[in-house]
Amino acid sequence: MTILPPDPDLTALRVTLARLRGERGWTFDELAERSGLARRTLIDLEHGRTTGSVTTWHALAHAFDVPIEHLLGPLCDDHAPPGTQNP
Length: 87
Fold this sequence. Notes:
Blueprint (H helix, E strand, L loop, with lengths): L9 H15 L3 H8 L3 H8 L7 H11 L3 H5 L15
């Protein structure tokens, strides 16, 4: 029997990105310059048209100066994160 993990909360992921960008008052152009990512990529991430790669989120973590867990942690907002459930 195959046990699948719960679906990630992709909405929370893009909301976190939008919140961090908004808190800093950065435009997409400013975040693109700070992260080295394309403006179109950032727009697509924030609007949920793409989820990006680990490399993308790594660049964003550095641009925002936050641990990558801060960006990716919301993926588990609607369920218990791995390693936190009792066996």
